[in-house]
Amino acid sequence: MNEVIVALLPWLPLMLKGFALNLWIGVLAMLLACLAGVCLGTLQRARSRVLRLGARGLTQLLRNAPWLVVMFFVMHLLPYEWHLTGAVISLPAWLKAVFALALPAAGNASEIVRGALQSIPRTQWEAATALGYGPVAQLRHVILPQALRLMVPPALGLYCVVTMSSALASLVGVGELLSASREILAATARTDLLLPVYGLVLALFFFYIFPLSLLARSLERRLAYR
Amino acid sequence: MKRILENPFIALHAVSKAYGDTPVLKGIDLAVGRGEVVCIIGPSGSGKSTVLRCINALAEIDQGEITLDGALIGSPQLPLQQLRQRVGIVFQSYNLFPHRTVLQNVSMAPVQVLGRDRHAVEQEARALLQQVRLEGKEQAYPGELSGGQQQRVAIARGLCMQPQVMLFDEVTAALDPHTVKEVLGVIRSIAAQGMTCVLVTHEMRFAREVADYVYFIDQGEVVEHATAEAFFDTPRDPRTRDFLDTVL
To answer: Measured between CA atoms, how close is A150 to chain B, in angstroms?
Structure first.
């Protein structure tokens, strides 16, 4: 046991650095997903039929695409670098992984937004109308403040899923935690380290995600009315 | 057979409305005088609530016209926002804003819609809450109140817009019997202050006591209308008699 710890210790900084990349990818992907999700989700409730159906179709497409397939797809679809009128913008693999995770997450975020807006009873719009609020003011003063509370817990849950899924990036050559672990195992060539290394990977993810999902659950209870 | 008032405050002329293929109102004529309390009664699904919703343009009418103090609603003389400031409505299901305190529920629209001074409005809101006997509940959230209390907040919220007419849409239908009394008491005092009121209600005894004039609507038509006394004491139409027999 002690011997295993001593053997692993020198590799720990590498693993933590890998995990930091997982977290960074997760946060960025979630931010993108939220932005796209708010737009798509609101458009799913738009008055215009074309916008509504378009947003709904895109949402379903994104939401029902397997995350790993999207990951491979984006990796091979996006170029390594972008030539923009002289300037060269390079797209490192980790950034492509961010986009790849953001796409299916955006589909889920869109549904969270749509669901929250939809669960505000029609009578709330009506009461605001009867008090003289215009459509934008209704959304701003009455509907959104209520809907946002409903969105927070499921969004936190989605963030957990996105963070966990960042490990998929290891399959397309991003040097995150899982990739680092495989390299360590290859370098040490010791089979007795297999379980401890993967166990550590599991523990890192678990102790980051678990408190968050607990928080999501307690928020869900606390933010509910009545 | 339609009621003729010289200067009706609210007047409906041959108002028709359908939801899809289902006609809800079939040529309703109705008049309410200034300061009057008018009750609309009738069986469920007769279109009573739709009449109220048409008066403040929550529901659009297909045919006919509705005027408020002589101005056609929706016309340039009476744009919808002005209409809704002048006509308050209280719903059966209260429809308070659950994310705002009682005081905010009452005071937010005058500040946010009419642009009035927050301080002055809150002063008035407190006075109104006192009038509906809810002093001390200013900082509570709607979810913490009983149905009767919520409904009284909703009434105060309507009054805080300083409307000229209050519409009450079956406001006691969702309440248990002993809280009905406290809400009816508040409506009684509002009516006594001279506010023009139109009530859709199933509380026949209350209608008889508080109403100046009564309309009986069935299947989207006005069957009978008369002063409260005449209506309840000497109903003429057999349909009215049947209805009164079943509810009284």
So the answer is: 12
